[in-house]
Write the structure tokens for this entry.
Amino acid sequence: MARTGPTTNARRALLWLAAIIIVAAVVLGGGVAAGAASWAPKLALDLEGGTQMILTPKVAGGASVNEQQLNQAVEIIRQRVDGSGVSEAQITTEGGRNVVVSMPGKPTDQQRQLIQASADLSFRAVIQVAAGAAVPKAAQTPPDKLPKPTAKPVNGSDPNWIDAALYQQFENTSCVPPLTDRPTTSDPAKPLVSCEPGSTLKYILGPVEIPGTDVKDATYGLAQGAQGVTTNQWSVNLSLNAAGAKTFQAVTQRLYQKYLANPNDPQAQFAIVLDNNVISAPRSQAVISDGNSSITGNFTEQSAQQLSQQLKYGALPISFSIQSEEQVSATLGSQQLQMGLLAGLIGLLLVVVYSLFQYRALGFVTVLSLVIAGALTYLAIAILGWTENYRLSLAGVAGIIVSIGQTADSFIVYFERVRDELRDGRGLIAAVENGWGRAKRTILASKAVNLLAAVVLYFVAVGNVKGFAFTLGLTAVADLIVVFMFTHPMLQLLARTRFFGEGHKFSGLDPKRLGAVPLYRGAGRLRTPGDVPSVANGQLKAKNTAAAGEAERRMTIAERKLAAKQHEMSGGPGAGKPNDNSKENDR
């Protein structure tokens, strides 16, 4: 089997890169042609402006809203807005009474209803569970095999709730990307197809058996064992009112029988549903008669606290009325965006000037690499704006500007490794391969640190800082693609051209200007310290002083000591001269 050489691999990598760019451009162009996408990235609230709504809470029975309830309501609204595909929205409280929602663009009627509705917490029995991916059309259940109820359902776990239409909806629903659009409210008297975010599972649930309003309290803490000893396992403690406790006893008795027959039976589970999403589906391992239950599982302290808050405030008797709605201009405006882009262009220009001054013709490889990295980043942001409704904020623009220097660092590391190999006396082709072997480890380590920092910053930060972290990580990925699929392959091909291969003085890879001396001197003789040009021993003319200095810097300690000793013994210029403060006595 024939082995492929570096030239073939380089051309193949360049073709793959071209294919990636072309496919991305075609995908985006198809979206533009269909009217669903735009060639320009979507802009966030701080750059484009949008809509600001001030919401006034309305409480059932005229009760007042406390701070905890309002904060939980804000969190639920934020989850709803993010789930509806709106990015970079800002949800805050005002005066401890109102909620301010600022979002890019103009909200649809469905989004307004979603924001205004009260939280919907309920408890439903699980009838069926499956993997979250949608079933392909070819693999779906034939019409004649679809479920046909044989009797009227007798309880919330009865499979007779499932008819042909519900089962088809269950098979078509996707709880993994791309997600299926689903309403956040439902009929409590009917079954429901639901997803459990984070677990990639989907459920068929029975009708609501316990409404969220029956939750009296919910706390979290370390679970206690059978002997009352505190364990290291976190749990959530749920307390129901009298009506909820009575229903819960009947439900847990039914589910517990299922559990005893088969501990893995999905019908032994009781799902906790918030806004039509399953937030937990514990199994009933006992009959609970007093309404006080403990939910255990693979909880961390943070996840246990979150679930307890969702249970405690998830059924808030709060809905919102829109007190005012107005269009707001960009908080930073087009002028600030232009200044940011100008700063980026100045930084890019300085990088280009430095690259051409330092690396001459080789600097054009850096320029082309930056252009390709920019094209990949632009296409990615535009496609994400179309598919994920990602919006570019000024913080995101700052992340892209910062990445220019980080991207240029990768090229500098690589080029300097190649030049080091040339100084050691290797030919350009060997210098490129050896230099790449050393440089890619440094580049991978550097980008791994960048990606780790971006991921951590994205998940722990709030607000627009997430936009900065996202573009910082995105450009790091684009940099790796360009270095591996363009910069190195291009240098492999250029090394075989006459201009670069023979070390033209304007190539940036001239061995003489780098102070290189071949290790093999011919006639069976290897390089010695005396063969290395040195300013000290006077072997170079004035015009080669820079190259001599560079060559002397590249000498090993042993070579430098031996050269100094030979120079002293030969009585070369400067040898044996006294110090300036001493006097020479002639006899």
